[in-house]
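Q: Convert this sequence to structure tokens.
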Amino acid sequence: METTQMNLLKRKWLTKWRQRIGYGVSDFACNLIWQVISLYLLYFYTDIMNLNAAAISLMFVVTRFVDGVTDLLVGYLIDHTNTRWGKSRPYFLFGAVPFALFAFLCFNVPDFSNSGKLVYAYVTYLGLSFAYTLVNVPMASILPSLTNDTEERTALSTSRKFFAFLGATIVSSSVLTLVAVFGKGNEQLGFKIVMGMFGVISCLLFFFTFSAVRELPVHGTKNPSFKRVFTSLKQNKPWMIFAVNILFMWTSFFIQSSALVYYFSVVIGSKTLSITVATIMSIVPMFANFFVPILAKLLGKRNLYLLSASIQILGLIVIMFAAKNITLILVGTFISAIGYGVKESIYFSMQADPVDFGVWKTGVNVSGSLSAINGFLGKVAQAISGGVAGALLAWGMYQPGEIRQSGKAIFAIQAMYLYVPMLLIICSIVTMMFYHLDNIYPQIKADLEMKKSLDVK
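A:
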């Protein structure tokens, strides 16, 4: 009897960890490809394929607008998907191959004329962006249906962010070396081979995610109409607060990221230091993630978010007063990286809870639409950050390529890297102070469990 019980506990433990790892590697699979796209696709198109930089920049802008529409479309499709595998899980199976294939095609440009190459770039990049949406939106929408336990959701989100940071770190530290090794002096060939390898690995990881995760039975109305989705979201106050916070949080992140090279090359006078800082901002959050489940259990999700955001601000303040003191800059970066890593991890865990609130409040499950709108707001934040960053550089009369910049230009870059992000993080903290879902979540969970048991009977 005791042996049987031990075996059951062991099996349960293995199943839980298989799901945690399976869910986590989905973001590794995404980052393995999308980080290459973010870091090197512009360089590949302009410097290797000799396409016009302005034309490619316009392509990126057009794609972001199309992305916003496809996010909402995929969210709506998820809410109306009902299969034996669940609502979100099938997208990992059927989206993996298109994602890997379009990633490879983006770096496999035929020997067309420049106009032909540009058309090819549009088709393949738009295809990749849609395929990315097919596998990325389900990563958020599936979390509420993997478990009803808020602590386990935090553990799953922690696993996801650990593997995301790991994937990003591997890409940033290895891709150019791999391109040189496989290309043997031919960068076009090198990128094609590397992207082919990464595509296969990414595809296999998504297949593993599909096999490792299991969706629980879904509460709430199936196939809700657009009107019911809209009404449900309108009544979901915790999500509305969370949605406002998305704009503050991600605009802060994107503005600071865009200013990294400017700040260290112009203000500090050491472009190479930006590489060290970027490495710290990738590796430290990866390990800070391990403390998130324990801290969330002790403090609650909202309080941990507020604390980690405050720590991030503290790190930026240290950098601000460090001037050109490299040691203090690195200390401030380390502090900021801890806050950022914990904040982002708990943010992804918190995304799932308003879904349960919506089901509890309205009886309608809109996990797909809610996750899609969250993704759409992230893209809006990216667009806002690009506009603000460009406006600040224009206001400061920044001169590209010049070593000496005016005091106004230096202030504009400081604003991009420090002042504006700090202001936005403060706005994020104030916004999340109105988020009280943690207090009533145990009651929501109990009510939904009771409803589930009654439905079974």
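The chain has a mean pLDDT of 87.
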